[in-house]
Each structure stands twice: as C-alpha cells, then as structure tokens.
Amino acid sequence: MSTTKKLKALFDYQRFERNERLQALIDDTERRCLCSLSDDDLEWVSAAGEETDLKDKKDGKEDE
Amino acid sequence: MNKQDTGYIYAQYRDKVFGFVRSKIVNQTEAEDIVQTVFLKVYSNLDKYDETKASLSTWIYTITRNTVYDYLKAKRDRPVFELLDNTEDATDEAPDEELLRNETLEELACALEKLPQEQRDIIILLYYKNLERKYVAEMLGMTYGQLRYLHDKALRRLGELLRIK
Predict the structure, then answer these.
(1) Total structural domains within chain B
(2) What is the pLDDT of residues B96-121, one digit of tens each?
(3) How many Å apart are CA B7 and CA B65, to the nearest integer?
(4) Among residues of chain B, what percentage have pLDDT more than 90?
(5) CA distance B66 to B154
(6) Are the C-beta atoms of A52 and A45 separated by less than 8 Å?
C-alpha cells in the first residue's frame, strides 16, 4: 500500500477512533491554518471540515 | 460485560459511529438514519463476527465506513448532486484491517511529530481536511511548486517512519 493510501485510510479511521495524540496535532494545524478562512471559505467547510475541496467547489472542477 | 451485548455495543460505539458519519454527511437527519442503519447491520451480523479476524472496534468501523460510502456513492449517482461532500473516496478500496488499530494512529502521530511544522500542516490539510493543493499553497503562503516539493519530502519521510505493512 502506498504512503498516500495509508494516510487516507488512517486519517479516515481517525474520524472514528480519535486517537488523542493525533487529534492534538490536527487541532493545532486547524487552529493555526484554518482560523484565517474567510466567511466565503467557511461555507464550504463542513462541521468536521472534511471531504470538502474548497478550491474545486469554487471552480466547479477537479484538480488531479 | 459480554461484548456481544447490543446495549454494550451501542453505548460503547455510538459516539464513534456518529462522529464518523457526521464527518461525512452534512445533513443531520440523514446522518442519524445512517447511524441507525449501521447499528442494525451490526446487530444482525453479530453472529458472523469473528474476533480472531478483527477487533470489535475494527469490525464496527468497517461496517460504518462501508455503509457511509455506499450511501454517498448511491447519492452521487442521483441526477441532482446535492452533497457538500467530495465523494472521491467512495470508490476507494477498503483498507487493510491490520492498518486499523489505535497503535497505528499512535505511530502516525509519532511520525507527524517528527516532521517540520510546515510539512505536518501540509499532510494534515491535504489528507485529513481533504483540501486541494493549490488552496493549501495559498493558505500557507507558498507557491504551488514549493508545496509540491515539501509534500513529496514529507511523504518520503513518512514512508520511512511508518513501518505499516
């Protein structure tokens, strides 16, 4: 399994298991990086802030 | 207490199941319906649960994940796409159950702690928050090229640090 697939699987599992140490790192990143989002940006972020591709939603296209 | 007691299972896993479902499904009513579906599946398949193959937690997580992704996939196929969610993962293959252990999450946390903060942010924003690369670059005040360089560097380091098979 590739590192990217492992990361996707593990971060998905984290939404269920909520390992405290990992959650602290996630919360820290969210606090520093996402607090500056504008109201327009925030409307694209779900309560848990996932599965939402801000730029894609704005552009209406995928970028892969 | 017997782990196969449905009351125990509901009390023990309700928050975890709901937390996962709610992170994927924006609409609360739909999320609650899915949680109910998950527990119905769990209860009706308890006799098939084999504790030698997976922990109860992993087994319930797998049912939860599959139920959510099946729902998202079905919804995506409807004529009007009304989810906020990006359902890209709905087609992803199911992860190896060996990967799904709290110890592995601990290992990931440990590996992430060893990354420079900027690289850790990139990994979390891309793989947990599922934000698009160009947007993350903009958010972190770097060029797209810089982000790709740091992302690749972080992935290589994580590949070395994570001894997950």
Answers:
(1) 2
(2) 777 788 889 999 999 999 999 999 99
(3) 21
(4) 69
(5) 29
(6) yes
**Are B99 and A54 in contact (CB < 8 Å)?**
no
Residue located via tokens 């919360």: A27
Residue B85 gets which letter from DSSP? S
Residue B1 lies in a domain: no
| Domain boundary, last residue among B65, B94, B123 | B94
- Measured distance CA(B104)–CA(B92) in Å, rounded: 20
Indicate if B55 and B121 belong to the same structural domain. no
ipTM for the predicted complex comes to: 0.82
Select from B14, B59, B106, B108 the residue whose CB has the most chain A CBs within 10 Å, as the one to mutate to test that interface: B108
pLDDT digits (tens, 9 = 90+) for B120-132: 999 999 999 999 9
Does residue B61 lie in a domain region? yes
Task: Please name the amino acid found at residue B138.
Answer: E
CATH of the domain at B42: 1.10.1740.10
Q: Which DSSP letter does residue A53 get? A: -
- Put simply, the answer to whether B100 touches A56 (Cβ < 8 Å) is no
Domain extent, residue B67, equals 6-94
pTM: 0.77
Interface of B with A in 34-53 (CB under 8 A): none
